[in-house]
Amino acid sequence: MINDFFIYKIKVKDSPFKTEKGKQLSNTVAISFLDENKKEIAYTELGFVDKEQVYACIDQGKEIDLDYCYIENFSLSEYRKSRNLDKKAYVKLVGFSAYNTFFDSHIISDFSFAQFEEGFKNFENTHFLNGTISFNSAIFNNGSVNFSSTYFNNGNVDFSNVNFGDSLVNFKNSFFGTGHKNFQYAKFGSGKLLFLNTEFNKGDVSFINAEFNSEQVSFKVARFGDGKIDFHFSQFHCNELIFERTEFGNGRIDFRTSEFACEKVNFNRAIFGNGEKSFEGCQHGHGKITFKKTNWGDGNVSFEQVEFEKSWLILDNSEFGKGNLSFNSSRIKTLSLKSCHLDYYVDLRVEKCKLIDLSNTIARDIIDLKPSDLNLNIETINFSGMRLIGRIYIDWTICNVKDLVYSQESKNKRNFAEQFRILKENFNNTGQYADEDKAYVEFKRNELDADLHDAVKHKLISRIWTYPLYAFKWLIFDKVGLYATNPLRVLTSMVFSYIFFSLLYLILPLFIDTQIVSSLGDPDKLGAIAVSFYHSAITFLTIGYGDYYPSGAFRWLSGIEGFVGLFLMSYFTVAFVRKILR
User: Fold this and answer.
1) Which residues contact 71 (CB under 8 A, 6 or more apart)?
2) What is the pTM for the complete model shown?
3) Which residue, among 401, 409, 345, has the nearest Cα to 378 in the 3D structure?
4) 358: closest CA among 375, 326, 334?
5) From CA 528, how far away is CA 404, in angstroms rounded?
6) What is d(CA 105, CA 59) in angstroms, rounded to the nearest whole number?
7) What is the predicted pLDDT for the residue at 374?
8) For the chain, which terminus, N or C, has the lower number of CB atoms within 10 Å?
9) What interhelical angle do 528-540 and 487-507 show, nearest 10?
10) Is CATH 1.10.287.70 the classification given to domain 487-581?
11) Nearest one of 350, 357, 318 to 332, comparing CA atoms
């Protein structure tokens, strides 16, 4: 393919030209390709074919063989006009082949409303040197269509309303110049469709309302220039859709309301430019849509209101530049953002999602999970390994955060502890102190369980002291005061402890020789119950009036109660002051 020239020169010679198939033509066309300095960079010779010769073949229903030929100002619109046909009358082209053919035109090379008959249709290595190109409403009946390595110098190419049939359609290695590439309402049949390594260059590219029914649709390593890339309302009813390593330019990328009925949709390692990217309202039947290691560039990215209820949307290891990322009101089976760089606002207020995976994500701005007028229906969120430099806006109660974490398939306590620690620090930063306390309790509980598991995993003998120590921490730190996050819980524990010791003072004298003695001769004549509860109160609160003192085993019990009372009062003070200072 010759595609790096600045200008070209045509010279028609009287000498005959013989094609590689042995076809004899009367004249030879010499084409010189020059660079900006008018230096020749390429030269080729072709056979000259007058367009009227082609028109005559059409009239007679003969095969049209233009291989290694040069033809000027070919136009089916002109042909219909010269034959008094309707402007939209289809023109049959039999056995069409234009391998290494050069079409040249002052205005347009026109194949509009062409009806290519069954058989192989070949435009391989064809050069459209000048003028716009139109295949508007053309029909390619059964048989492969080959536009591989085709050079469209003028990028204003019209393939709108084209029916490409049910065989292979190949645009591999094709080159489009600057201009509008129009594939609106094009229909691609059941054969493979290849835009592999295609250069679309600058200018808008439109596949609006296009139908892709192919076995495989591949835009792998294709390159789009600056301009709007529009797949709005497109229908991808293919087994596999590939945009792997595709380079999108800096214009708007629009896949809004497209229908993906492909089991596999692959945008892995794609590179998006600095423009808005929208997949808003897209639908997908089932399977996976992957954007692994994709570079999204700057500009907003929208997956709002997508219908992926039976699909995995995987954006692992992607890099998002300046711009917001939104999944608002979407329905997705699994949304994976593992190891992504999220430097700007991310809206995760989805309508329904079974799993949101934020593991190992670096978040520098806001991740919004706090519903406003929408009820979130999320089953699981994975925060493990997350580096949270920004903020997560989420409500512990409304979003059922505890269930979101514990519903994960992995039941690793250390992992749970780390996630609740991240949430605890996040709630502190956002001023949600009540939610912080709840996350802190879950963090400490899982940390305690993880420490127990690690301690007894390899050394069985350590169970002798590990289990009692675990039980002590479980009782004192957790059950008594929820790790100093709940002063009311501590106060309740104080009341129960006081009643417990009071009952011991009342019951134990019935079984052992011990009692509470009045140092004043019991002037108030208190009953056994009153004495037990009174002595317990002055001991628990460390008042120690001295009017009643313990004897026997009660001496040791009173010492224990005094310590418990002092400890719980301190515990209460810490928890209470912690609440007040906030």
Assistant:
1) 49, 50, 51, 54, 101, 102, 103, 104
2) 0.86
3) 401
4) 334
5) 53
6) 22
7) 66
8) C
9) 140
10) yes
11) 350
Task: Write down the pLDDT at residue 339.
Answer: 96
> pLDDT per residue over 136-166, tens digit each?
999 999 899 999 999 999 999 999 999 999 9
Helix (H) / strand (E) element for 424: namely helix 413-429
Report the DSSP beta bridge partners of residue 277: 253, 301
d(CA 369, CA 398): 10
**The total number of residues written for the chain in this structure:** 582
**Cα separation, 150 vs 198, whole angstroms:** 10
Residue 262 and residue 241 in contact, taking contact as beta carbons nearer than 8 Å: yes
Structure tokens at 173: 């290695």
In this structure, what is the dihedral angle of CA atoms 382, 387, 391, 393, given to the nearest 10 degrees?
A: 0
User: Looking at beta carbons, which pairs linking 265-269 to residues 24 or more positions away fall under 8 Å?
Assistant: 265/236, 265/241, 265/289, 265/290, 266/240, 266/241, 266/242, 266/290, 267/243, 267/291, 267/294, 268/244, 268/292, 268/293, 268/294, 269/244, 269/245, 269/293, 269/294
Task: Tell me the C-alpha distance between 442 and 259, whole Å.
Answer: 43
> Cβ distance 224 to 200 under 8 Å?
yes
List the chain residues with pLDDT less than 70. Answer: 374, 458-462
Q: Spell out the domain ranges in the chain.
A: 487-581
Measured distance between the N- and C-terminal CA atoms of the chain, rounded to whole angstroms = 72
Residue 460 confidence (pLDDT) = 67
Close Cβ partners of 569 (under 8 Å, ≥ 6 residues apart): 494, 541
Query: Residue 100 — left, alpha, or beta (φ > 0 → left; ψ -120 to 50 → alpha)?
Result: left
CA 480 to chain centroid = 44
Write the CB contacts of 411 (distance below 8 Å, at least 6 apart in sequence): none
Q: Which helix (H) or strand (E) holds 266?
A: strand 264-266
3-class secondary-structure state, position 540: helix
DSSP letters for 481-503:
TTTTT-HHHHHHHHHHHHHHHHH
CA distances from 498 to 489, 533, 547, 572 (A): 14, 8, 19, 14
For tokens 């053919």, the residue is 101
CA dist., res. 358 & res. 422, Å (int): 12
Residue written as token pair 């136009």 = 75
